[in-house]
Amino acid sequence: MSVVTITKENFETEVLKSDKPVLVDFWAAWCGPCRMLSPVVDQIAEENPAIKVGKVNVDEEPELAQQFAVMSIPTLISFRDGKAFNKSVGVISKEEILNLI
Known about the structure:
It is built from four helices and five strands; from the N terminus they run βαβαβαββα. Helices cover about 35% and strands about 25% of the residues. The chain is globular. The chain has a five-stranded mixed sheet. Strand 2, helix 2 and strand 3 form a beta-alpha-beta unit. The model has no long low-confidence stretch (mean pLDDT about 95). By secondary structure, it is an alpha/beta fold.
């Protein structure tokens, strides 16, 4: 499954009302660690059809970043049944990301 671009307009539909667990990557184009993590997140999206993966550009969606207290990026937050239940800040391994979900 491909990565979904998450905005405040589609957040409720794509994340909160999703019937699958959702992994959301909060990132920015100027962030080096975000660029390192991005291919790993993309790979997880391709290899795990049971998981929805979305990305939030914090420069374009500051309200979402603020809503989830994203102070540093990259930040990964996993959601299940409309609730945030796991969070990680910084670059982590693929295995650690899968453990978040």
